[in-house]
Automatic annotation (TrEMBL):
<dbReference type="InterPro" id="IPR033121">
    <property type="entry name" value="PEPTIDASE_A1"/>
</dbReference>
<comment type="similarity">
    <text>Belongs to the peptidase A1 family.</text>
</comment>
<keyword id="KW-0472">Membrane</keyword>
<dbReference type="InterPro" id="IPR001461">
    <property type="entry name" value="Aspartic_peptidase_A1"/>
</dbReference>
<keyword id="KW-0812">Transmembrane</keyword>
<feature type="domain" description="Peptidase A1">
    <location>
        <begin position="151"/>
        <end position="525"/>
    </location>
</feature>
<dbReference type="InterPro" id="IPR001969">
    <property type="entry name" value="Aspartic_peptidase_AS"/>
</dbReference>
<dbReference type="InterPro" id="IPR021109">
    <property type="entry name" value="Peptidase_aspartic_dom_sf"/>
</dbReference>
<feature type="compositionally biased region" description="Polar residues">
    <location>
        <begin position="550"/>
        <end position="568"/>
    </location>
</feature>
<dbReference type="Pfam" id="PF00026">
    <property type="entry name" value="Asp"/>
</dbReference>
<protein>
    <submittedName>
        <fullName>Aspartyl protease</fullName>
    </submittedName>
</protein>
<feature type="active site">
    <location>
        <position position="388"/>
    </location>
</feature>
<keyword id="KW-1133">Transmembrane helix</keyword>
<feature type="region of interest" description="Disordered">
    <location>
        <begin position="630"/>
        <end position="659"/>
    </location>
</feature>
<feature type="active site">
    <location>
        <position position="168"/>
    </location>
</feature>
<keyword id="KW-0645">Protease</keyword>
<feature type="compositionally biased region" description="Basic and acidic residues">
    <location>
        <begin position="538"/>
        <end position="548"/>
    </location>
</feature>
Length: 659
């Protein structure tokens, strides 16, 4: 084979390798969680739409999103006390950026192949000035809808041990992993009783204690039953009061009821909550270890009915009023205990009454109408809505979701990718399985979605709000690609559970929400952006002595009461930043190493094949040459003999020739 043929083969191999890696990098884009609205290399090609995998995933594997999940959760209503163990199941849908086989249909790319190598959740925490006014106890919220899939706070348990717990207004339970947990994530954020002094150390509640709920032992999750009260004993430790938390997707956590000191927003007190001794692989996340439920007491039986932590704070007079409020932005927020903070929102608060105020379970309000840019959309199920900070997206019933999708496709097909690709209308970014590369100009062509709540409360979501922005650097070029993912999903049979829709993080990141449990109402106002909130809070100074802006029982510290015993220094933040930058650089170089190694490997394989073929050909020609040489030698000798014989015959026939 000629040298030019080998060059052609090598060139074709290199082109194939580069094309394949570029394809894989597109399919497995890494979402950049660091907020950066600058788009590099904006394109005019049709949208690339990325299928989302259902099922909660471990954040240690996401994102490289670190697999950041998009989790939704719905706690089923409790009907009767005797059904608590059977019915107290949280049904939750999870939307992750998980990873199966690459799936692409022309310009559609599955959402499950979006990944994030985000460090936003690590760098999102900031240490604030100790000179800020504290009107009510406030705690900084970390996480985000895209960066983590939920919001969480740092809870100080016992003697300064930090546990990350999800801020969840859709449940009433608080639970943290214990050091004895047999299969919890192996990191430092597990509560260890032995690290606290004996004098202040809490306890695990015995199964025969009066605290442990009587007549609750009728579940397979109970290890045994107490002889005196038929209480549910822990399956992991039969001598302790059982704690069980189950979810509709199969995830679970179980352990024991504990009584221990906690610190929230610099308020320290002892309370009862769940200590996890065993959980399923899908329960605990890398950034979030446990849960901090803020709903009503009817949801706090697991199976022993405990007073929810916030209710306990109210009953003990640790907060001024039975009110809390939440500000949540893309990556940060504020939890305000005892009231609201007018520095965190614009305009005035508008209130809508809670449904079932006499026996409340969720924060549920009446939804009178849903409109799209002022036009009524006839949704089959939209009469009630649960406001849940533990749900990532807005969740509709399947019928309502399909009705909204049909309306969009009937009026806004000018937006790329909305009305399907490859002749299939289901291959659309309105399908929850896909995300799309869309220009900002196309986003502006989409309509507002308005939720009309009782008492003329109007909640407006602009396209920028419900088309969630996911930044993803192309691994080959390094350019930032901005995917848009619809922040609305559906749950089949949602209406059968007594709820028509769930208003989760997609809405709550835009609205400051006040949970007024005294007057059984929810208040809404447009939330200020985090950059403005941070600036206002940093500029606010503590009042001089004699002022009454700060409650005597409340510490005059930062409204972002970091419960960490050793706040990060600037040097540590710098090291973290440098480390993250180094990882980013290493990641980009790693791609080129793979490309180079692929080219070198292909060249080496082709070279070996070429050498083998060359040697075979040379050996074959060598054998042919030897055969031809032997043949020529034999022919030469025969010719010489013939010539000699011919000469002798000629001489004998000539006359006068001497004998």
């Amino acid at each position: 084979m000629s040298l030019s043929c080998w060059n052609i083969i090598l060139f074709a191999t290199v082109i194939f390798v580069v094309f394949h890696i570029n394809y894989v990098s597109t399919m497995h884009s890494v979402v950049n969680g660091v907020s950066n609205n600058k788009r590099l290399g904006a394109s005019t090609h049709p949208p690339t739409i990325v299928p989302i995998k259902s099922g909660r995933m471990d954040l240690s594997n996401v994102f490289d999103f670190s697999r950041r999940q998009w989790a939704t959760k719905l706690v089923e209503r409790l009907q009767k006390q005797e059904d608590i163990l059977l019915e107290n199941v949280t049904s939750r849908l999870s939307w992750n950026f998980g990873y199966d086989k690459p799936r692409k249909v022309q310009n559609l790319v599955s959402k499950r192949h979006l990944m994030e190598k985000s460090v936003s959740s690590l760098n999102g925490k900031q240490n604030w000035s100790q000179k800020n006014i504290v009107r009510f106890p406030e705690q900084q919220i970390l996480g985000g809808v895209v960066s983590v899939g939920m919001y969480y706070i740092e809870l100080d348990v016992g003697c300064g041990q930090i546990i990350h717990v999800q801020v969840d207004t859709g449940s009433s339970t608080m639970a943290v992993p214990l050091s004895e947990c047999v299969n919890c994530k192996q990191h430092d954020r597990r509560y260890d009783f032995s690290k606290c002094p004996n004098a202040t150390r809490g306890e695990k509640i015995p199964c025969d204690s009066d605290i442990c709920g009587a007549n609750t032992c009728y579940s397979s999750y109970c290890g045994s039953c107490s002889a005196s009260t038929a209480a549910c004993c822990s399956q992991v430790d039969n001598s302790k009061c059982g704690f069980i938390l189950r979810y509709g997707d199969g995830a679970f956590a179980q352990g024991t009821v504990i009584h221990e000191t906690v610190t929230i927003a610099n308020i320290t007190f002892k309370t009862y909550f769940g200590g996890i001794l065993k959980d399923s692989p899908s329960f605990e996340l890398t950034e979030v270890d446990g849960v901090f439920g803020l709903a009503f007491p009817l949801l706090a039986c697991n199976p022993t009915c405990l007073t929810p932590v916030f209710d306990d704070m109210v009953q003990k007079g640790l907060v001024e009023r039975d009110i809390f409020s939440i500000h949540s932005d893309l990556e940060n927020g504020v939890l305000v205990l005892g009231g609201s903070d007018d520095r965190l929102y614009d305009g005035t608060l508008e209130y809508s009454p809670l449904i079932n105020a006499n026996e409340p379970e969720f924060y549920e309000v009446e939804c009178e109408e849903v409109t799209v840019s002022g036009t009524n959309v006839d949704l089959p199920h939209f009469k009630t809505a649960v406001v849940d900070s533990g749900t990532t997206l807005i969740i509709l019933s399947l019928d309502s979701f399909l009705a909204l999708k049909r309306y969009f496709q009937a009026h806004y097909c000018n937006v790329s990718g909305l009305c399907g690709e490859d002749g299939d209308p289901d291959l659309s970014w309105f399908d929850p399985d896909y995300c799309a590369l869309l220009e900002d100009s196309e986003i502006r062509q989409l309509p507002n979605i308005e939720f009309h709540l009782k008492n003329d409360v109007l909640l407006i979501l602009e396209p920028e709000d419900y088309m969630l922005k996911v930044e993803s650097p192309n691994l080959l070029t390094g350019e930032i690609e901005i995917y848009r993912c619809l922040g609305i999903h559906y749950m089949q049979h949602l209406e059968r559970m007594g709820n028509d829709m769930i208003l989760g993080g997609t809405l709550l990141q835009r609205y400051y929400t006040v949970y007024d449990r005294e007057q059984m109402r929810l208040g809404f106002a447009k939330a200020k952006r985090w950059s403005d909130v941070k600036q206002v809070l940093d500029e606010t100074r503590q009042p001089e002595k004699g002022t009454d802006n700060v409650e005597a029982s409340q510490p005059s510290q930062s409204p972002f009461a970091s419960t960490s015993p050793t706040p990060r220094t600037n040097e540590e933040q710098g090291e973290l930043s440098h480390s993250s930058s180094f990882l980013d650089i290493l990641s980009s170089y790693r791609l080129w190493i793979v490309v180079g190694a692929s080219i070198v490997g292909a060249f080496a394989i082709l070279s070996v094949v070429g050498i083998i073929l060359y040697r075979r050909r040379r050996n074959r020609y060598a054998h042919v040459d030897e055969a031809e040489a032997a043949s020529l030698t034999s022919t030469g000798r025969n010719d010489q003999d013939d010539i000699q014989l011919s000469t002798e015959e000629s001489s004998s026939l000539m006359p006068g020739t001497r004998a």
